[in-house]
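B., you asked whether I could sanity-check this one before it goes into the benchmark set. Here's the sequence:
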Amino acid sequence: MSVYSVSDITIKDPDAYKEYMALAAPLVEKFGGRYLVRGGQVTPGEGGWTPNRVVILEFPDDESMVAFRTSPEYAPVGEIRHKAADTKSFKVEGV
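And here's what the prediction gave me:
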């Protein structure tokens, strides 16, 4: 079953975040993931939630997502993101 990572990202350092995006994309693909949403115009809906930058990743299964997030290749790339942006995220299973 597919799993999705949904993130609301507030960028603090645009140059470092651009570096992160360039390094993360090939790793997402290496672990079987793909970007469904990577930025774009956000139009608020109900509930008053207005995310800054939305990123939605799809992975074929939970194991693939965990392998990506915990891989030695991603660790230094993830550190760039932690320094460049504040992120709120959650994982959800698809149907």
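One thing to flag: The longest strand covers residues 3-11. Otherwise nothing jumped out at me.
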